[in-house]
Amino acid sequence: MDPSRRLAEALVDADALVRAVPGLRVASTPGAPLTQVRLDSVTGQLGLPRLEVVADPDGLWSVELALTRHLARASAGDGTAAGPAGQWRTEGPVPVRATDGTALRCWSAGPPDAPVVALVTACGMPAGLTAGWMRALAGPFRVVTWESRGMFGAPDADGPAPLGAHDVASQAGDLLAVLDALDVPGAHVMGLCGGAVLALAAAATAGPRVSSLSLWHGDYDLGDAAPRTEHQRDMQAMMAMAARGPEKAAGVHRLMRRPVVLDSLRPDIAHHLIYPYATPLLLHRYGLLNGAIMSHDSRPYLSAAQPVLVVTSRDDVTAHPAGSRYVAAHLPRARLVTRPSGDHLTAFDAGPEVVRLAERFLSDVLEDA
Fold first, then answer.
1. Cα–Cα distance between 85 and 273 in angstroms, integer?
2. Angle at 92 between CA 189 and CA 139, to 5 degrees
3. At CB < 8 A and 24+ separation, what contacts does 322-329 make?
4. Could you tell me which of 76, 263, 283, 316 has the fewest CB atoms within 10 Å of its CB?
5. Range 154-164 average pLDDT
């Protein structure tokens, strides 16, 4: 692929991050040299804010380093095609209004008359994190997804759209708003990480519009019924701090600016994972939204009547596998799959093994319908 096209795809994939933080710098690296003229040309064609090219990555903060490494991988031809695209042309972002008027951005891929799979991704993450699933499932299915309320803006927006309610019921209700806007009567709902909590909550209120559920490495609060990992406890404390107000969020943001933050983030998706920490405002809203999910007791939702696939792995040190085991044991029509390997983030990769699991489950559900 032409280097300029690879650069353009990488920038489209990082669109949300580039728009969220004005005045970002990126470094030209020896293995993937980048000139200001070339970058200005591509960002200009895409309508993106200008990025300043610097000669040395020293002095860049965490978001700038994540973006630098992402563009370098693309320039070197390392990695798969960026963005939620594949065999089928992706439509989006499509603007949608939630029931309380909050603006949402959603995407759709696949034949309009195919069965619909709705992806409920991790809170606060750009749609590009679901690209693997959209590529894998679009074709046999129409795949739809959306981004968390109040965390993203329209292409010409100055900052994220206003945030209305941030409770779990409102976030789960956004699924129905997306289905209504796309004229979709019902869907098979896939929830990943904290999205599994929202998927369960939506199933409890949407009834037959949720045909089935698949819950992948769910980040559940189950009270004293299941333990939580150290990561979950630390994350919940951070969310509570950031949610307390803009000043507290700004203090956490200063810590997240350190380059060492990237040491714990996978390089190929770090530009997505760091997004909700990119500005104090985003981090404050992330604390409100994700904090609500992480502290919401999921046990009242465990009477969902739909067929359910629950997936975890022995290696998940992010969301405790015991939570998934408890959920599967208490849902009346659930099947648990515990993968022998694969950490939390591999669920987002949509590798062959997990895609086969999803497709087999969806095939069984459609046959039984």
1. 19
2. 55
3. 322/226, 322/227, 323/218, 323/219, 323/220, 323/222, 323/226, 323/228, 324/215, 324/217, 324/218, 324/220, 325/226, 326/220, 326/222, 326/225, 326/226, 327/200, 327/215, 327/218, 327/220, 327/222, 327/298, 327/302
4. 263
5. 75
Amino acid 208 reads P
Spatial separation of the C-alpha atoms in residues 128 and 134, rounded to whole Å: 9
Q: Are strands 103-109 and 52-54 parallel, antiparallel or unpaired?
A: unpaired
pTM above 0.85, yes or no: yes
DSSP per-residue codes, 272-338: HHTGGGSSHHHHHHHHHHHHHHHTSB-GGGTT--S-EEEEEETT-SSS-HHHHHHHHHHSTTEEEEE
Q: What is the separation of C-alpha 105 from the centre of its chain, rounded to a whole number of angstroms?
A: 12
CB of 308 closer than 8 Å to CB of 361: no
User: How much is the average pLDDT of 318-347?
Assistant: 95
CB 151 within 8 A of CB 282: yes
- What b/e readout covers 48-83, taking b as 16+ CB neighbours within 10 angstroms? beebebbeebeebbbbbbbbbbbbbbbbeeeeeebb
Q: How far is 320 from 337, CA to CA, in rounded Å?
A: 14
Q: What percent of the chain has pLDDT over 70?
A: 95
Lowest mean pLDDT among 24-33, 37-46, 193-202, 300-309: 24-33
- Residue holding tokens 């109040």? 150
β-sheet with 91-97: strand ranges across:
91-97, 103-109, 142-146, 116-120, 187-192, 210-216, 308-313, 334-339
pLDDT greater at residue 1 or residue 224: 224
Q: In the numeric block, which tokens belong to residue 121?
A: 């991704």
